[in-house]
Amino acid sequence: MFNKKKQDKEKNENKEQENKDQQQNEEKPKHEPISPEKNQFLLEVKQKLHSSSDFIVRFVSDNMSLVYVDNLVDNKMLNEIILAQLQEVEESPEAIHQKLTLPEVDVVNEMNKFIDDMLQGAVIVHINGYDQVVVAKISAYQSRGLSAPENESQVIGSQVGFNENLSTNISLIRRYITNPNLCNEKFVLGKQTKTSLSVLYIHGIAIEEYINTVKQRITDLEIEDLIDSAVLAELIDDNSRSIFPQMLLTERPDRFCDGLLSGKIGIIVNGSSMGILCPYSFIEFFQSREDQNLRWPIASFIRLLRFFAILISIFLTPIYVASLTFHYEVIPQPLLVPLSESRAIVPFPPIIEALILELIIELLREAGAKLPTKVGQTIGIVGGIVIGTAAVEAGITSNILIIIVALGALSSFTTPNYMMGNVIRIIRFPIILLAGFWGYYGVMIAVCILFIHLLRLTTLGAPYIAPFYPPRFKQWPNSIIRFPITFIQRQAVNSRNKKNESELGGKKVSK
Question: pLDDT tens digit string along 381-422?
């Protein structure tokens, strides 16, 4: 009996091993040779594309045929270069490869390889009797023209933003940085989409450990599809479960290049109008590119005003709730009487009153963002006035709380980064709940939890709240205010001379 169980166990283990080996063999791409016979070749390609209606076959001669996918190739280059030059060439792959005056021409002997190229805008030249084809890449993807950035507007500075074409975005970056040390390494991600992306950095300025970490994380990814750069940023950051973004998404080429020049690594994804910059610390999300274009006293004042507005946005409503619920003694006597009169007919406790108004503000903001521009502005202004007035007259809320909530919402708009602005909007709600349950003690608990979380976060292995932790006292002033350009440039040169030391004081951490 024991021997039989042992034999059954060994059989099951052998079957499991065979299944694993079979799965691994299926995952490996099989080498499919190209049929030298013309009709068989066309039939195989048609089957590979499942008889798609945009699969085009053109015959140059009895032995030579062209296959490509319609709307992916440049018809002008096809007619004026490829077809014209194929009329005067000997019918062999090597002769065609030498004759075609195109930047990207190759000879391929594997079907899967040229199918992938064809789906990216290549024309395939097949000659009857040869088991090789010539691949000529003449892709012509449709993309929108360059326009001003919509989410990162600025008064002084460049008014050009990225579009969805990878080549166009790379050319914009190279126009800003005409430096041979600007490196561009290409990768392909997504088993279904085969999305192209470029990792850019400046050799000698970017830290080698960060470069290797980014490339390693991208190489290790095994995903089915990749549509947008925001998805990639979440996949390769240090803590994807955190609400705080650890990589910057920007649609501004000038801000992207400014990051590269300061030693960061940039990623551009084909099909996305947002570039990724990393590593990015917490304090840098509240700095705008326009700060560099203004005179340093004005830029410093605006930056300090921005930090003050963030504190108002996060803590003003929770302080109101905590004060009216537990701590009346902190309210000045002249203000206590108007507050009592304003809340005399309100049937809800302060926490419910605040949550209702905050939710109304978020609904108006979300509705205004999703509607067309003109209608969205109307909804935001008229809806806010009508709902606010009606809520006060109905006794649902007080006048003072409407002012406080509106001021908090207005302050959240000063955050120059959209993703960090969303974080500021969201973290208000748990702080309001803690303030309603435990007063100022709840607010302090929320502050402690927030600081502990920020201290634990890293970006490419570097501390997230650098230069404050670990302390880099020389970088503190320039993080909070903007120093003169001469001082910043001198500091940048000194930091480049110490390129072996981490800019943020961290070590590489692989994900």
Answer: 667 677 777 777 777 888 888 889 889 888 988 888 889 989
Q: Which two tokens stand for residue 355?
A: 């949550």
Q: Quick check: 242 pLDDT over 50?
A: yes
Number of C-alpha atoms within 13 angstroms, CB side, residue 404?
A: 22
Length of the chain: 511
Number of other CB atoms surrounding residue 29 within 10 Å: 9
According to DSSP H, which parts of 119-190 are helical?
166-176
Query: In angstroms, how far is the first alpha carbon of the chain from the final one?
Result: 48
At residue 430, φ and ψ (nearest 5 deg) are -65, -30
Look at the block and give the residue holding tokens 């034999």.
Answer: 7
> For the ranges 24-28, 127-131, 212-216, which has the lowest average pLDDT?
24-28
Q: What is the model's pLDDT at position 142?
A: 66
Q: Tokens in use for 262? A: 């300061």
Cα separation of 65 and 45, whole Å? Answer: 12
How far is residue 416's CA from residue 430's CA, in Å, rounded to a whole number? 23
220 secondary structure, DSSP code: H
Return the amino acid letter for 203. H
Q: Give kind and range of the element (H or E) at residue 267.
A: strand 265-269
Buried b / exposed e across 156-175, counting CB within 10 Å, b at 16+? Answer: ebbebbbbbbbebbbebbee
pLDDT surpasses 60 at 503 = no
Sequence-ordered list of residues with C-beta below 8 angstroms from that of 353, at least 6 positions apart, any chain: 346, 396, 397, 398, 401
pTM score of the predicted model: 0.81
Q: Cα–Cα distance between 85 and 188 in angstroms, integer?
A: 32
Burial class from Cβ neighbours inside 10 Å (0-12, 13-18, 19+) for residue 453 reads middle
**Segment 15-29, tens digit of pLDDT:** 455 554 444 444 444
